Structures are given as structure tokens and as C-alpha cells.
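Lab notebook page, bench 4
Experiment: in silico fold of construct C2
Operator: M.H.
Input chain length: 249 residues
Purpose: comparison with the prior construct
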Amino acid sequence: MTDQVLLQNRRYYEPAYNLRRGVFTAIRRRLSLDQHYKSSINWNLLRWWLTEGHTVQSVFEVGLGLGLTLSKFPKSVRLAGTDISPNAIRLFHATCLAQQRHVAFCVNDSVGSLPFAAQFDMIICSHVLEHVPDDVAVLHEFRRLVAPTGAILLNVPINEQVPDPKHARQYTKASLFDKLMRAELKVVHEITADRWSSFFSTRQYQQQLQLKVLRAMLALLSYPAAEYISTSLFPDLLCQQLAVLVVPA
């Protein structure tokens, strides 16, 4: 990650998670469309993996954010994770301790190697690869950390219409699959979704009250319902999330 991009990421994500535990934070977690939608897409993939007969006793997430995906696992599952924001780590770690979960979290910006040696049944990396300087090196780290019978869940933005200065690169399906091949990983399942991001990115005034209310309402919907509505209303809009489950080749 270049110094400039790294600085932009730290400046953005640290205050974004400067929250205290309580009702306000709970509401924020529930009404965050971006994180709720990403987590719903990811959990849809994870549910497929579990229904295929795989067991998950340990999970490691890079860029855990509000912890929406990790919190869906049973309390018996050991959780580990990193985030660029100390506030995000502090907030979710306190929640896990209150729930008496087995956890291990730390602050890390994925510039170097990941500070874990144990292998995990599931590794989650959602909307992080586009921020790091060497995504193939990070994928090799995931391959090192995933258990022989485990899997890695990756979710990256695609078809971005508005450049994000916090991103080190833009992905297409072809470019991501090329990186996976170089890291000796193969795709076993994939989901392309999220026309809503295309809808909001094409609106000139995204801070209008009506759009904020719409985003909050969508966050309350289930993933299938939100996807059905967007597909029905905006069939020509491009999906902006690509989520894949991969295993060692």
C-alpha cells in the first residue's frame, strides 16, 4: 500500500468506527447498508459451504469492521481477526468478551505478513484486497493460514463507476481469477450481486434525506428480498460485488 493510500485508509476508517457500545451503535450496525449487504452476501456463500457438509470451528477475518459476519457464527466457533482501525477492534472485542466468545484480534493494515500461525477452517476477506499493495502476497498468506479442508471467502468490488482514492486497484472477474490462479487457489462457488451500489453511485446528491431513508430501509431487508427488488427495478445496472469461495488448488 502506498503511503498516500494507507494514510487515506487510516484517516477514513479510524473515525468511522469511533463508537461506544450501546443503543446507538446497535442501530448503526443494523442500518449500515454497505456492511449489512456485504455481510449478507458473504453469509449466503458461507451457508452454501456449511450445507455441503463442511464444519467450521475456527474463523479468521481480515478487515472485520463491525463484525457483522463473525457475529453470525455460533459461540462455540473460535474467532480471530484484524482491522486497520483500532476502534473497530476495540468495539467488537468488547462485544465478544461480553458474550464469552473465544477470540483473538489485533490491528493490522495487511502491508506485511499476517500475525497468525494457526490454521483456520474459514478465512474471510471482504472488501480488503482492493486496498492492499500486493494482493497476490496476501492471497499466499491466506493459503498458508487456511486448513487443508478449509476455504477462503473473498469479496471484492467490481464494475466501479466512481473511483475510490482508498483503493489500490480496480477488479474485474477476470483479473481476480488471474490473481487466484497465481496464488494456487481455485474457485468452488461464486456470487455476483449488488445493483444497489450502482443505483446509489449514479445519484448526484447521495446525501439527500430520501436516499438516506432508502438506504436504511434496504438495510432492514433480507438479502434475497433486496436482490429481487434491485433485479426487478434495475435489470440493466451492473452488479458491484463479486464474492467467491476458494480452496487450495
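Observations: The chain is about 40% helix and 20% strand. The longest strand covers residues 146-157.
Next step: discuss at group meeting.
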